[in-house]
Amino acid sequence: MIELEGLPELVDPVLIAAFEGWNDAGEASSGVIAHLESAWKAEPLVALDPDDYYDFQVTRPVVEMGDGLTRSIIWPTTRLLRARPPGLDHDVVLLRGIEPNMRWRSFCADIIEVCRELGVEFAVMLGALLNDSPHTRPVPVIGGATDEGLARSTNLELSRYEGPTGIVGVLQHAFGEAGLSAISLWASVPHYVAQPPNPKATVALLRRLEDVLEIPMPLGDLDEEARAWERGVDELASQDSEVAEYVKELEERKDAAELPEASGDAIAAEFERYLRHRDTDTDS
């Protein structure tokens, strides 16, 4: 059961959600929520009861110690937080969770119940998957939507994937079944450098999120961390001729599949992003 009494009244809130685990290659999507939670100084709203959805032998609680004494136990769960980004007149709800081990349909129903109580009518689910994209090129971000009109209005490059899915796909579908609008954004993480963190993929998700929501996304040091990450992978690849040759092959394949110059949509999106950040800087 979720305790919904005492929840604040939010102003036109949108939901941004990500889950650790299968949906989170390189911790790129959960990294978005962690970054926004800090940058926007998000405040806790509600947490799901972990006993309902987590197998603690699979997803174990964490003990915090101090002076040799057990100070607290941090239970794996899913939490929702409230943020009011600078310069905006509406709220953002951040969902930061761990993919549940059981009872996914009840889990989704609980999330939807909370969202209805908060007044959320639109959600963006974030994920990251392992792919054969080269680390030297822009991170591809593909997506899905609860209906075709929403996909067109958000200019999504739709995924053609069919196969096993995670909680991101299930929750997006549940939103559609409940009459709520939702899209998903998936960043492609190079499978040959899968270990977290991957700040370049996190930045790619933030930029695409900015385009969709038309909300300036604070990047902080993430841009520089992304460049440092790429330089580090360059150095590692240069030390192994087989890896270097493989990366070159991926680059050639990627370049051959794309247009030689930026598309009109890409240029327009970049210009709109510049204007949003300029307006935000002026207001501050």
Distance between the termini: 42 Å
Tally of strands: 9
Uncertain runs are: none
pLDDT averaged residue by residue: 90
- Bulk shape: globular
Residues in β-strands, percent: 15-25%
How is the biggest beta sheet arranged?
A: 7 strands, mixed
Tell me the structural class: alpha/beta
- Sequence of strands across the biggest β-sheet: 2-5-6-1-7-9-8
Helix content: 25-40%
What count of helical segments does DSSP give?
8
Rg estimate, integer Å: 20 Å
User: H/E element string?
Assistant: EHEEEEEHEEHHEHHHH
Give the SSE layout.
Blueprint (H helix, E strand, L loop, with lengths): L13 E7 L7 H12 L3 E5 L14 E5 L2 E6 L4 E5 L8 E7 L5 H15 L3 E10 L9 E5 L2 H6 L13 H11 L3 E10 L8 H15 L8 H17 L2 H17 L6 H20 L1
Parallel strand pairs: 1-6, 1-7, 7-9
Antiparallel strand pairs: 2-5, 3-4, 5-6, 8-9
Helix pairs in contact: 1-5, 2-4, 5-6
